[in-house]
Amino acid sequence: MSPPSPPSRRRLPRQVRERQMLDAAIAVFSRRGFHLASMDDIAEVAGVSKPMIYAYLGSKDDLFTACIRREGQRLMERIAAAVPTGLTRDERLYRGLLAFFEFVTEHRDGWIVIYRQARVHGSFAGEIAAARERIIVMVAALLARSSDDEAHARAMPIAHALVGAAEALSDWALEHPEETPDALATRLMDVVWTGLRHRDRDPRCSG
Amino acid sequence: MSPPSPPSRRRLPRQVRERQMLDAAIAVFSRRGFHLASMDDIAEVAGVSKPMIYAYLGSKDDLFTACIRREGQRLMERIAAAVPTGLTRDERLYRGLLAFFEFVTEHRDGWIVIYRQARVHGSFAGEIAAARERIIVMVAALLARSSDDEAHARAMPIAHALVGAAEALSDWALEHPEETPDALATRLMDVVWTGLRHRDRDPRCSG
Predict the structure, then answer these.
(1) Residue of A nearest to B155 (CA)
(2) How far apart are CA A14 and CA A10, in angstroms?
(3) Complex ipTM more than 0.85, yes or no
(4) Rounded to the nearest 5 degrees, what angle is found at the Cα of A64, between the Cα atoms of A106 and B114?
(5) Residues of B in contact with A191 (CB under 8 A)
(6) Cβ-Cβ contacts under 8 Å, A158 against chain B
(7) How far is it, in rounded angstroms, from Cα B56 to Cα A41?
(8) Taking the model in full, what pTM does it have?
(9) Where are the alpha helices (H) located in chain B, listed in sequence order?
(10) A72 and A51 within one domain
(11) Which CA distances in Å does A60 have to A28, A55, B80, B93?
(12) 20 to 30 A Cα–Cα from B120, which one of A76, A115, A119, B112?
């Protein structure tokens, strides 16, 4: 790998520098796994010194936690931006799923860190569970037929199922990079959406 | 806890003794987690000496691997027995899901070991992935509209999604012990099954 480029070292604002470090950390964690990833590798990919990473973002554990939080936050924001109120529930669901699969396809490294790496390290399970719960709550709000608490609570089990289905399909897609986000969203919609629509709208059609 | 009961120690055949040890290990792992579970606890619950566990089943890692294998195998057999050929695909899918949720509900400890504990310990990820893949392949065979390889391959992504949905719903159900297996299977069927049926049978109904 190329050596760090000293000229830019002192020029960048903290926020930009941190973003570069997190980008580097996600790339290294996703390729090597948490245990094998070294702070030396991450510093080299980020083009900064190892002490600078410690000073900015803390230990390897802290860095991994920061990666999970940032990627989880990005995924949330991506989905939230894709489902403005004003659209029908069906449209919002489809667009939400599409945004999810776009994120997973475009941020393969981030997804691998969140889904595959973080899950298999017990000490980060709470962090992942919290990010996942926020997404499930958002999906339940999309699924609920009204905005009251009871309707939201009723939608929670199906929100869990839908998020589980989307995760599992994304995991499959890691081995099938030819699949487009639209193809993935459509696969899930073909099964789930029709069922939801018929359940809500046309009970005569569900027999 | 009560002390081990020496009178029965030498009477039992190896197979029965191993089953007792695995039952004890699953109970302890599910309650304490892999790291906090001790071989002393497991020996006490099994009513045998710690050296006997090592002699029969090896290290704590070996014991945990044996737990994953046994519970995975039991789950597979339970589902396979519930979906005899001769039923319609819809019936087989429903019964397969029901068998899955019955297993999860009746073997809470086993499910916690497989789903929650084993997933968060990287060294067992391969074992879990293998058990999961066997179940997904079985589900794809249930979903496929014909028995040729191509139909099976086409069903794989939806099999992943369905297994992911069932897992996530089971995880939700751990916090909702009042849910019956039938209620869980029906929840998932309400969404998924209708979609599958309409996709296959009545394209006019999917608009």
Answers:
(1) A187
(2) 10
(3) no
(4) 85
(5) 158, 161-162, 192, 195-196, 199
(6) 187, 191
(7) 43
(8) 0.80
(9) 14-32, 39-46, 50-57, 60-82, 89-106, 108-111, 125-143, 149-174, 181-201
(10) no
(11) 12, 12, 44, 45
(12) A76
Residue B129: give its domain's CATH number: 1.10.357.10
CA A100 to the chain's CA centroid: 7
The token duo for B70 is 């046994």
Distance CA A69, CA B15 (A): 47
Length of chain A: 207
CA of B117: which chain A residue's CA is closest? Answer: A122
Task: Going residue by residue through chain A, which has 207 residues, state the pLDDT in tens, using 9 for 90 and above.
Answer: 555 555 455 678 889 999 999 999 999 998 888 888 999 999 999 999 999 999 999 999 999 999 989 988 999 999 999 998 888 887 888 899 999 999 998 888 888 877 777 666 667 878 888 888 999 999 998 888 777 888 899 889 999 999 999 999 998 998 898 999 999 998 888 777 655 555 444 433 333
Token pair belonging to B83: 């979906």
SS3 assignment, position A69:
helix
Question: Range of A168's domain?
Answer: 68-201
Among partner residues B34, B161, B205, which is closest to A191 by beta-carbon distance? B161
CATH number, domain containing residue B54: 1.10.10.60
Alpha carbon of A160: minimum distance to chain B alpha carbons (Å): 5
Helix (H, G, I), strand (E, B) or coil at A40: helix
- Interface check for A196 against chain B (CB to CB < 8 A): the answer is yes
